[in-house]
Design the sequence.
Protein backbone atom coordinates (compact mmCIF):
# COMPACT_ATOMS: atom_id res chain seq x y z
CA UNK A 1 0.00 0.00 0.00
CA UNK A 2 1.50 3.33 -1.02
CA UNK A 3 2.01 6.06 1.55
CA UNK A 4 2.72 9.72 0.93
CA UNK A 5 4.47 11.96 3.46
CA UNK A 6 3.53 15.60 4.03
CA UNK A 7 5.72 17.80 6.25
CA UNK A 8 3.37 19.53 8.71
CA UNK A 9 4.28 22.68 10.64
CA UNK A 10 2.27 24.53 13.29
CA UNK A 11 4.65 27.51 13.61
CA UNK A 12 4.27 27.85 17.41
CA UNK A 13 5.57 30.72 19.48
CA UNK A 14 8.50 28.67 20.76
CA UNK A 15 9.75 31.55 22.93
CA UNK A 16 6.66 31.50 25.15
CA UNK A 17 7.45 32.09 28.81
CA UNK A 18 6.96 28.62 30.36
CA UNK A 19 5.67 30.19 33.57
CA UNK A 20 2.72 31.87 31.85
CA UNK A 21 0.41 29.19 33.28
CA UNK A 22 1.05 30.40 36.82
CA UNK A 23 -1.18 33.32 35.93
CA UNK A 24 -3.24 32.18 32.92
CA UNK A 25 -5.05 28.90 32.32
CA UNK A 26 -4.61 28.74 28.55
CA UNK A 27 -2.19 29.51 25.73
CA UNK A 28 -5.29 30.26 23.63
CA UNK A 29 -7.75 33.16 23.36
CA UNK A 30 -7.12 34.82 26.73
CA UNK A 31 -3.30 34.78 26.94
CA UNK A 32 -2.27 38.47 26.59
CA UNK A 33 -0.40 39.25 23.40
CA UNK A 34 2.14 41.13 25.52
CA UNK A 35 3.82 37.71 25.75
CA UNK A 36 4.60 38.00 22.03
CA UNK A 37 7.84 39.75 20.99
CA UNK A 38 7.72 40.85 17.32
CA UNK A 39 11.50 40.71 17.07
CA UNK A 40 11.41 37.04 18.09
CA UNK A 41 8.42 36.47 15.83
CA UNK A 42 10.36 37.83 12.86
CA UNK A 43 13.10 35.26 13.48
CA UNK A 44 10.67 32.40 14.07
CA UNK A 45 8.56 33.00 10.96
CA UNK A 46 11.59 33.01 8.69
CA UNK A 47 13.16 30.04 10.44
CA UNK A 48 9.95 28.06 10.10
CA UNK A 49 9.64 28.86 6.40
CA UNK A 50 13.23 27.67 5.97
CA UNK A 51 12.32 24.35 7.61
CA UNK A 52 9.33 23.82 5.33
CA UNK A 53 11.35 24.71 2.25
CA UNK A 54 14.08 22.29 3.35
CA UNK A 55 11.56 19.45 3.46
CA UNK A 56 10.48 20.25 -0.08
CA UNK A 57 14.10 20.30 -1.26
CA UNK A 58 14.62 16.87 0.34
CA UNK A 59 11.79 15.39 -1.70
CA UNK A 60 8.85 15.15 0.69
CA UNK A 61 5.57 14.63 -1.15
CA UNK A 62 4.16 17.86 0.20
CA UNK A 63 4.16 20.47 2.94
CA UNK A 64 1.33 21.72 5.12
CA UNK A 65 0.33 24.96 6.81
CA UNK A 66 -2.80 25.61 8.86
CA UNK A 67 -5.01 28.17 10.58
CA UNK A 68 -5.36 29.12 14.23
CA UNK A 69 -6.27 32.39 15.89
CA UNK A 70 -5.11 34.34 18.94
CA UNK A 71 -2.80 31.79 20.54
CA UNK A 72 0.81 30.76 21.08
CA UNK A 73 0.18 27.26 19.70
CA UNK A 74 0.23 28.25 16.03
CA UNK A 75 1.16 31.61 14.49
CA UNK A 76 -0.74 31.25 11.21
CA UNK A 77 -4.06 33.10 11.48
CA UNK A 78 -3.93 33.58 7.70
CA UNK A 79 -2.34 30.39 6.28
CA UNK A 80 -2.62 31.73 2.74
CA UNK A 81 0.17 34.19 3.58
CA UNK A 82 2.49 31.30 4.37
CA UNK A 83 1.29 29.27 1.40
CA UNK A 84 1.92 32.30 -0.80
CA UNK A 85 5.48 32.61 0.49
CA UNK A 86 6.02 28.89 -0.11
CA UNK A 87 4.41 28.88 -3.56
CA UNK A 88 7.47 30.50 -5.12
CA UNK A 89 10.15 28.96 -2.93
CA UNK A 90 9.06 25.33 -3.10
CA UNK A 91 9.38 23.53 -6.43
CA UNK A 92 8.56 19.87 -5.96
CA UNK A 93 5.80 18.84 -3.59
CA UNK A 94 2.21 19.84 -3.01
CA UNK A 95 1.23 22.70 -0.70
CA UNK A 96 -1.67 21.76 1.56
CA UNK A 97 -3.50 24.51 3.41
CA UNK A 98 -5.12 22.67 6.33
CA UNK A 99 -7.26 24.57 6.24
CA UNK A 100 -9.39 27.65 6.18
CA UNK A 101 -12.00 27.77 8.94
CA UNK A 102 -15.02 28.43 6.76
CA UNK A 103 -17.70 29.12 9.43
CA UNK A 104 -15.68 32.06 10.76
CA UNK A 105 -15.82 33.94 7.46
CA UNK A 106 -18.22 36.68 6.45
CA UNK A 107 -17.31 36.11 2.80
CA UNK A 108 -16.15 32.59 1.80
CA UNK A 109 -15.47 33.83 -1.74
CA UNK A 110 -12.22 35.23 -0.38
CA UNK A 111 -11.09 31.62 0.11
CA UNK A 112 -12.20 30.66 -3.39
CA UNK A 113 -10.09 33.52 -4.79
CA UNK A 114 -7.12 32.94 -2.47
CA UNK A 115 -6.91 29.23 -3.26
CA UNK A 116 -7.37 29.87 -6.99
CA UNK A 117 -4.42 32.28 -6.92
CA UNK A 118 -2.22 29.77 -5.12
CA UNK A 119 -3.26 27.03 -7.53
CA UNK A 120 -2.29 29.20 -10.49
CA UNK A 121 1.03 30.34 -9.05
CA UNK A 122 2.08 26.77 -8.26
CA UNK A 123 0.79 25.30 -11.51
CA UNK A 124 -1.59 22.96 -9.71
CA UNK A 125 0.34 22.04 -6.57
CA UNK A 126 -2.33 23.28 -4.16
CA UNK A 127 -4.39 21.03 -1.89
CA UNK A 128 -7.39 22.92 -0.56
CA UNK A 129 -8.19 22.24 3.09
CA UNK A 130 -11.51 23.20 4.67
CA UNK A 131 -12.13 23.02 8.41
CA UNK A 132 -14.77 24.11 10.85
CA UNK A 133 -12.08 25.33 13.24
CA UNK A 134 -11.69 24.02 16.78
CA UNK A 135 -13.92 25.41 19.50
CA UNK A 136 -11.38 27.97 20.71
CA UNK A 137 -11.54 29.77 17.37
CA UNK A 138 -15.22 30.56 17.99
CA UNK A 139 -14.29 32.32 21.21
CA UNK A 140 -11.55 34.26 19.42
CA UNK A 141 -13.80 35.25 16.54
CA UNK A 142 -17.02 35.85 18.45
CA UNK A 143 -18.74 33.33 16.19
CA UNK A 144 -21.74 31.19 17.15
CA UNK A 145 -20.58 27.54 17.45
CA UNK A 146 -24.17 26.31 17.11
CA UNK A 147 -24.15 27.58 13.51
CA UNK A 148 -20.84 25.89 12.72
CA UNK A 149 -22.07 22.94 10.66
CA UNK A 150 -24.61 24.90 8.63
CA UNK A 151 -22.21 27.72 7.87
CA UNK A 152 -19.46 25.27 6.94
CA UNK A 153 -21.65 23.39 4.48
CA UNK A 154 -23.05 26.54 2.93
CA UNK A 155 -19.62 28.17 2.60
CA UNK A 156 -18.30 25.00 0.98
CA UNK A 157 -21.18 24.95 -1.51
CA UNK A 158 -20.55 28.59 -2.37
CA UNK A 159 -16.84 27.95 -3.01
CA UNK A 160 -17.64 24.91 -5.15
CA UNK A 161 -20.06 26.98 -7.18
CA UNK A 162 -17.42 29.67 -7.66
CA UNK A 163 -14.93 27.08 -8.91
CA UNK A 164 -17.12 24.86 -11.06
CA UNK A 165 -20.01 26.89 -12.46
CA UNK A 166 -19.49 29.39 -15.29
CA UNK A 167 -19.78 32.88 -13.89
CA UNK A 168 -21.39 35.09 -13.10
CA UNK A 169 -23.97 33.01 -11.24
CA UNK A 170 -26.24 33.70 -8.29
CA UNK A 171 -26.07 32.18 -4.79
CA UNK A 172 -28.86 32.39 -2.24
CA UNK A 173 -28.31 30.67 1.09
CA UNK A 174 -29.24 31.11 4.72
CA UNK A 175 -26.02 32.90 5.60
CA UNK A 176 -24.54 34.02 2.29
CA UNK A 177 -26.19 35.92 -0.57
CA UNK A 178 -24.43 36.87 -3.79
CA UNK A 179 -25.85 38.31 -6.97
CA UNK A 180 -22.56 37.69 -8.76
CA UNK A 181 -20.40 34.63 -8.13
CA UNK A 182 -17.67 34.98 -10.74
CA UNK A 183 -14.26 33.82 -9.51
CA UNK A 184 -11.26 35.40 -11.20
CA UNK A 185 -8.85 33.68 -11.56
CA UNK A 186 -10.27 30.22 -12.20
CA UNK A 187 -8.45 27.35 -10.53
CA UNK A 188 -5.53 25.79 -12.40
CA UNK A 189 -6.68 22.27 -11.48
CA UNK A 190 -10.01 21.40 -13.02
CA UNK A 191 -12.69 21.15 -11.89
CA UNK A 192 -10.96 22.21 -8.63
CA UNK A 193 -7.96 21.35 -6.41
CA UNK A 194 -8.06 18.20 -4.25
CA UNK A 195 -9.94 18.83 -1.01
CA UNK A 196 -8.84 17.59 2.41
CA UNK A 197 -10.95 17.76 5.56
CA UNK A 198 -9.06 17.69 8.91
CA UNK A 199 -11.14 16.94 12.00
CA UNK A 200 -10.96 15.93 15.64
CA UNK A 201 -13.45 13.16 14.91
CA UNK A 202 -16.88 14.68 14.38
CA UNK A 203 -19.22 11.94 13.12
CA UNK A 204 -21.10 14.48 11.02
CA UNK A 205 -17.87 15.64 9.36
CA UNK A 206 -16.89 12.06 8.51
CA UNK A 207 -20.31 11.31 7.01
CA UNK A 208 -20.22 14.53 5.01
CA UNK A 209 -16.66 14.02 3.71
CA UNK A 210 -17.34 10.39 2.72
CA UNK A 211 -20.49 11.20 0.73
CA UNK A 212 -20.27 9.92 -2.88
CA UNK A 213 -20.65 13.44 -4.26
CA UNK A 214 -17.47 14.44 -2.41
CA UNK A 215 -15.23 11.52 -1.36
CA UNK A 216 -12.90 14.03 0.27
CA UNK A 217 -9.72 12.98 2.04
CA UNK A 218 -10.41 12.90 5.78
CA UNK A 219 -7.53 13.65 8.17
CA UNK A 220 -7.62 12.63 11.81
CA UNK A 221 -5.65 15.06 13.94
CA UNK A 222 -3.74 14.52 17.17
CA UNK A 223 -5.41 11.42 18.55
CA UNK A 224 -4.26 8.11 20.11
CA UNK A 225 -3.70 5.47 17.48
CA UNK A 226 -6.61 3.40 18.81
CA UNK A 227 -8.91 6.38 18.24
CA UNK A 228 -7.38 6.90 14.81
CA UNK A 229 -8.28 3.33 13.88
CA UNK A 230 -11.85 3.82 15.09
CA UNK A 231 -12.43 6.92 12.98
CA UNK A 232 -10.71 5.50 9.91
CA UNK A 233 -12.99 2.46 10.18
CA UNK A 234 -15.99 4.76 10.61
CA UNK A 235 -15.09 6.50 7.36
CA UNK A 236 -14.85 3.16 5.53
CA UNK A 237 -18.11 1.91 7.02
CA UNK A 238 -19.80 5.15 6.03
CA UNK A 239 -18.50 4.75 2.47
CA UNK A 240 -19.85 1.18 2.36
CA UNK A 241 -23.23 2.40 3.54
CA UNK A 242 -23.12 4.86 0.66
CA UNK A 243 -22.40 1.96 -1.71
CA UNK A 244 -18.69 2.23 -2.48
CA UNK A 245 -15.28 1.16 -1.12
CA UNK A 246 -13.14 3.97 0.28
CA UNK A 247 -9.52 4.01 -0.88
CA UNK A 248 -6.42 4.65 1.22
CA UNK A 249 -6.10 8.10 -0.38
CA UNK A 250 -9.32 9.13 1.35
CA UNK A 251 -7.84 8.89 4.86
CA UNK A 252 -4.77 10.40 6.48
CA UNK A 253 -3.15 10.90 9.86
CA UNK A 254 -1.52 14.00 11.35
CA UNK A 255 0.88 13.20 14.22
CA UNK A 256 3.95 14.79 15.88
CA UNK A 257 7.11 12.85 15.01
CA UNK A 258 10.83 12.87 15.72
CA UNK A 259 13.67 10.77 14.31
CA UNK A 260 17.23 10.55 15.63
CA UNK A 261 20.18 8.17 15.41
CA UNK A 262 18.86 5.78 18.09
CA UNK A 263 15.68 5.36 20.13
CA UNK A 264 17.48 6.57 23.25
CA UNK A 265 18.82 9.70 21.55
CA UNK A 266 15.43 10.43 20.02
CA UNK A 267 13.64 10.28 23.36
CA UNK A 268 16.28 12.33 25.14
CA UNK A 269 16.34 15.05 22.48
CA UNK A 270 12.57 15.23 22.01
CA UNK A 271 11.47 15.00 25.66
CA UNK A 272 11.59 18.65 26.82
CA UNK A 273 10.15 19.94 23.56
CA UNK A 274 7.22 17.54 23.16
CA UNK A 275 6.35 17.98 26.84
CA UNK A 276 6.35 21.77 26.39
CA UNK A 277 4.03 21.26 23.45
CA UNK A 278 1.71 18.98 25.42
CA UNK A 279 1.66 20.82 28.73
CA UNK A 280 2.10 24.46 27.73
CA UNK A 281 0.98 25.08 24.14
CA UNK A 282 -2.00 22.69 24.14
CA UNK A 283 -3.25 23.98 27.47
CA UNK A 284 -6.87 25.15 27.48
CA UNK A 285 -9.98 24.49 29.59
CA UNK A 286 -12.55 22.03 28.16
CA UNK A 287 -15.20 24.70 27.70
CA UNK A 288 -12.84 26.56 25.38
CA UNK A 289 -12.13 23.48 23.26
CA UNK A 290 -15.74 22.31 23.09
CA UNK A 291 -18.15 25.24 23.47
CA UNK A 292 -21.90 24.51 23.73
CA UNK A 293 -23.49 23.76 20.37
CA UNK A 294 -20.21 23.05 18.56
CA UNK A 295 -20.82 19.28 18.36
CA UNK A 296 -23.82 17.00 18.40
CA UNK A 297 -24.20 14.85 21.51
CA UNK A 298 -22.91 11.73 19.71
CA UNK A 299 -19.87 13.56 18.32
CA UNK A 300 -19.22 15.26 21.66
CA UNK A 301 -19.03 11.90 23.41
CA UNK A 302 -16.68 10.59 20.75
CA UNK A 303 -14.35 13.58 20.79
CA UNK A 304 -14.27 13.71 24.59
CA UNK A 305 -13.37 10.02 24.62
CA UNK A 306 -10.61 10.64 22.08
CA UNK A 307 -9.18 13.59 23.99
CA UNK A 308 -9.34 11.81 27.34
CA UNK A 309 -6.22 9.91 26.34
CA UNK A 310 -4.25 13.12 26.00
CA UNK A 311 -5.72 15.02 28.93
CA UNK A 312 -4.41 15.40 32.44
CA UNK A 313 -2.43 17.85 34.51
CA UNK A 314 0.97 16.76 33.19
CA UNK A 315 1.63 14.59 30.17
CA UNK A 316 4.92 12.82 29.55
CA UNK A 317 6.75 11.68 26.46
CA UNK A 318 6.46 8.05 27.56
CA UNK A 319 2.66 8.27 27.76
CA UNK A 320 2.17 9.79 24.33
CA UNK A 321 4.62 7.40 22.66
CA UNK A 322 2.79 4.46 24.23
CA UNK A 323 -0.58 5.80 23.06
CA UNK A 324 0.70 6.40 19.53
CA UNK A 325 0.10 10.15 19.83
CA UNK A 326 3.81 10.80 19.21
CA UNK A 327 6.10 8.88 16.86
CA UNK A 328 9.64 8.94 18.21
CA UNK A 329 12.71 6.79 17.63
CA UNK A 330 15.40 5.68 15.24
CA UNK A 331 14.61 5.40 11.53
CA UNK A 332 14.34 1.62 11.91
CA UNK A 333 11.88 1.94 14.79
CA UNK A 334 9.80 4.52 12.96
CA UNK A 335 9.72 2.47 9.76
CA UNK A 336 8.43 -0.48 11.75
CA UNK A 337 5.83 1.57 13.65
CA UNK A 338 4.51 3.38 10.61
CA UNK A 339 4.34 0.20 8.57
CA UNK A 340 2.48 -1.57 11.39
CA UNK A 341 -0.03 1.25 11.82
CA UNK A 342 -0.55 1.62 8.09
CA UNK A 343 -1.15 -2.10 7.67
CA UNK A 344 -3.67 -2.12 10.52
CA UNK A 345 -5.44 1.14 9.68
CA UNK A 346 -4.88 1.68 5.96
CA UNK A 347 -4.22 5.43 5.75
CA UNK A 348 -2.69 6.72 2.53
CA UNK A 349 -1.25 9.97 3.87
CA UNK A 350 0.98 10.58 6.87
CA UNK A 351 1.47 14.17 8.02
CA UNK A 352 4.31 14.18 10.56
CA UNK A 353 4.46 17.37 12.59
CA UNK A 354 8.23 17.78 12.47
CA UNK A 355 8.54 20.82 14.72
CA UNK A 356 6.76 20.80 18.07
CA UNK A 357 6.98 23.01 21.13
CA UNK A 358 10.49 24.36 21.56
CA UNK A 359 12.27 21.87 19.26
CA UNK A 360 15.23 23.88 17.86
CA UNK A 361 16.10 24.38 14.21
CA UNK A 362 19.06 22.00 14.10
CA UNK A 363 17.03 19.09 15.49
CA UNK A 364 14.12 19.82 13.15
CA UNK A 365 16.51 19.68 10.19
CA UNK A 366 18.13 16.47 11.41
CA UNK A 367 14.82 14.70 11.93
CA UNK A 368 13.45 15.98 8.61
CA UNK A 369 16.52 14.70 6.79
CA UNK A 370 16.40 11.29 8.47
CA UNK A 371 12.77 10.95 7.40
CA UNK A 372 13.65 11.91 3.83
CA UNK A 373 16.65 9.62 3.51
CA UNK A 374 15.87 6.63 5.73
CA UNK A 375 12.12 6.42 6.26
CA UNK A 376 10.19 7.81 3.29
CA UNK A 377 12.11 5.75 0.66
CA UNK A 378 11.07 2.58 2.49
CA UNK A 379 7.44 3.30 1.56
CA UNK A 380 8.21 3.93 -2.10
CA UNK A 381 9.12 1.63 -4.98
CA UNK A 382 8.18 -1.50 -3.09
CA UNK A 383 10.50 -0.80 -0.19
CA UNK A 384 8.24 -2.56 2.30
CA UNK A 385 7.99 -5.70 0.16
CA UNK A 386 11.77 -5.74 -0.40
CA UNK A 387 12.39 -5.45 3.32
CA UNK A 388 10.06 -8.38 4.07
CA UNK A 389 11.61 -10.51 1.32
CA UNK A 390 15.11 -10.01 2.74
CA UNK A 391 14.08 -10.68 6.33
Sequence:
Amino acid sequence: MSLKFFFFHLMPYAALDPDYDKKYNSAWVTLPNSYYDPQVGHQLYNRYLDEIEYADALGWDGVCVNEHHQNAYGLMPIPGVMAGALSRRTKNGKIAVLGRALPLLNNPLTVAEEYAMLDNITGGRLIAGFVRGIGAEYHSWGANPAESHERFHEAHDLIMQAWTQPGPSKFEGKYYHFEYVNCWPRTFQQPHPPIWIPSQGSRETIEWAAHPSRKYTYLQTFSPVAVLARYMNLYRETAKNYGYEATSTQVGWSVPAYAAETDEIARREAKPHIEFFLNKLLRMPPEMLLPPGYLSLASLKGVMSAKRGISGAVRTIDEVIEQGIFLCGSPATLREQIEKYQKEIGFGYLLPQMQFGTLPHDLVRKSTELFAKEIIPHFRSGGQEKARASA
Remarks:
- Residues 80 and 364 are 23 Å apart (CA to CA).
- The domain at 4-390 is CATH 3.20.20.30 (TIM Barrel).
- The mean pLDDT is 93.
